[in-house]
């Protein structure tokens, strides 16, 4: 039985992506679903490249000496590492496998940033060998790096000392002020084995003022470290540049309208637990706003403070570089009627939409791609479940108001999933294969060109 219900169903339409629309409108999405026999992700590397250029242009326009590292953890695809390398960017890695893959796809060792807590000795050894920069998270890690550098005697270890923020004192990452002072003394004693290039931090959340304040504090620390005889010419502000999936009106209207009745089984989510799917400033604009921010107690914007001190600004964006750089496609393989709505079952799992990892929901509206060109129109609400035996395995708890009746064989496209959604939480549960990644290389043609991504593992 088809269900057609009119009602105030909350929606969250995404900002347009002409390249993604072309993949659908050309029929390529349907052909790939047939050829691959299951769910898949498609990647739009031209969008990644455009986002990177926009950030680099902001740095240049602000007169800031800066360098962008792509945070590889946001998406494992090789094509984005390749585009970072050809676009004059580096890559932020946190494992031996990530480091090796970045090298294998053309990233120079000196353009690698190694982050994360308590790094494996094998990772540290590789980082030192290839002249990667290491963000040191703790004093014991610094001691290991010094020991490895002294033992190897090939080249000095390049390090940044990671600072803990006063605004996030319970973070498990970074060093306190007293620990930083101790670390500086140990760097001095290590002599030529260590190049102490500066400081780093990473803040949770997306507020700009705390980032500007901490960056200014670390500029002062760099100046004091130079007096001690250390290089201290760089600071890394990590990631955390927000993006906008939707426009402001759509986002605020959604937050005001949504209610447990709009979700399967009356599921509830805290509104403040959702990713902020709209930001007043996003991506490169957020970077520009950060550089224009005056840190607390300063009469000058951050950009001027950096220039006056001769400090290079490093940043490690992930999601912001991947904005509109990919989408995820599932096929509907079951339709079940409920009271006033339907439950769709697709040929994959919510593990390929990792927002569930945060006990949240990926809110941008999925697009229904019907097999029939003349499908009836109306309002057809449906929630979307996975092909597993778990009650909790829902791709979308919300009842989506589809414009056509969803039917077996139709496709669902989840938009803008390249940033963290595709593979942060993936698993071959039930021995289901992981969705492959398809690279769309040419979107300037009537018929896009595609290939499988060259990820090594």
Separate helix tally = 12
Query: What is the terminal separation in angstroms?
Result: 44 Å
Give the number of DSSP strands: 17
The name of the CATH superfamily of the largest domain reads Alanine racemase
Listing every helix as H and every strand as E from the N terminus to the C terminus, the arrangement reads HHEHEHEHEHEHEHEHEHHHEEEEEEEEE
Based on secondary structure, the structural category is: alpha/beta
Q: Please state the average pLDDT score.
A: 93
Number of domains: 2
Strand content: 15-25%
Low-confidence stretches: 1-6
What percentage of residues falls in helices of 4 or more residues? 25-40%
Q: Give the oligomeric state.
A: single chain
Write up what this structure looks like:
Helices cover 30% and strands 20% of the residues. The protein has 457 residues and is α/β, with parallel strands linked by helices. It has two domains: 18-44 and 324-452, Lyase, Ornithine Decarboxylase, Chain A, domain 1; 46-244 and 279-315, Alpha-Beta Barrel (TIM Barrel), CATH 3.20.20.10. The strands form two sheets. Strands 1, 10, 11, 12, 13, 14, 15, 16 and 17 form a nine-stranded mixed sheet that branches. An eight-stranded parallel beta barrel has the order 2-3-4-5-6-7-8-9, surrounded by seven helices. Helix 3 (45-61) packs parallel to helix 11 and helix 6 (121-129) crosses helix 7. The longest helix is centred in the middle third of the chain and has 19 residues, at 209-227. The two termini are 44 Å apart. 48% of the residues are buried. Residues 1-6 have low confidence and may be disordered.
């Amino acid at each position: 039985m088809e269900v057609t219900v009119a009602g105030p169903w909350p929606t969250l339409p995404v900002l347009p992506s002409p390249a993604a629309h072309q993949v659908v409108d050309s029929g390529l999405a349907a052909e790939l679903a047939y050829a691959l026999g299951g769910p898949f992700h498609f990647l739009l590397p031209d969008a990644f490249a455009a986002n990177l250029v926009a950030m680099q242009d902001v740095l240049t326009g602000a007169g800031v000496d800066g360098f962008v590292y792509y945070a590889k953890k946001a998406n494992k695809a090789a094509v984005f590492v390749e585009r970072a390398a050809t676009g004059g960017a580096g890559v932020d890695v946190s494992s031996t496998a990530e480091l090796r893959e970045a090298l294998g796809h053309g990233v120079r060792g000196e353009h690698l940033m190694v982050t994360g807590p308590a790094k494996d000795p094998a990772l540290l050894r590789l980082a030192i060998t290839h002249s990667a920069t290491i963000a040191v998270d703790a004093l014991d890690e610094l001691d290991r790096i010094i020991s490895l550098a002294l033992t190897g005697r090939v080249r000095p270890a390049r390090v940044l000392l990671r600072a803990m923020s006063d605004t996030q004192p319970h973070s498990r990452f970074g060093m306190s002020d007293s620990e930083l002072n101790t670390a500086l003394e140990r760097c001095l004693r290590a002599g030529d084995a260590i190049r102490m290039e500066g400081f780093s931090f990473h803040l949770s959340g997306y507020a700009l003022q705390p980032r500007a304040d901490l960056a200014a504090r670390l500029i002062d620390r760099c100046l004091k470290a130079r007096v001690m005889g250390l290089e201290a010419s760089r600071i890394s502000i990590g990631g955390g540049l927000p993006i906008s999936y939707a426009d402001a009106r759509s986002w605020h209207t959604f937050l005001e309208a949504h209610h447990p009745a709009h979700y399967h089984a009356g599921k509830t989510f805290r509104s403040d637990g959702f990713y902020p799917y709209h930001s007043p400033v996003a991506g490169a604009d957020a970077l520009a706003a950060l550089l224009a921010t005056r840190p607390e107690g300063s009469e000058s914007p951050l950009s001027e403070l950096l220039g006056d001190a001769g400090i290079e600004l490093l940043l490690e964006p992930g999601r912001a570089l991947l904005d509109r750089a990919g989408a995820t496609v599932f096929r509907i393989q079951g339709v079940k009627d409920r009271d006033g709505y339907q439950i769709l079952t697709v040929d994959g799992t919510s593990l390929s939409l990792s927002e569930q990892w945060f006990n949240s929901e990926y809110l941008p509206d999925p697009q229904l791609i019907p097999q029939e060109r003349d499908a009836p129109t109306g309002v057809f609400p449906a929630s979307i479940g996975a092909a597993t035996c778990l009650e909790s395995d829902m791709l979308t708890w919300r009842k989506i108001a589809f414009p056509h009746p969803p039917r077996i064989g139709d496709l669902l496209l989840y938009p803008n999933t390249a940033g963290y959604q595709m593979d942060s939480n993936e698993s071959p549960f039930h021995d289901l294969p992981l969705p492959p990644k398809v690279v769309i290389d040419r979107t300037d043609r009537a018929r896009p060109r595609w290939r499988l991504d060259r990820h090594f593992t």
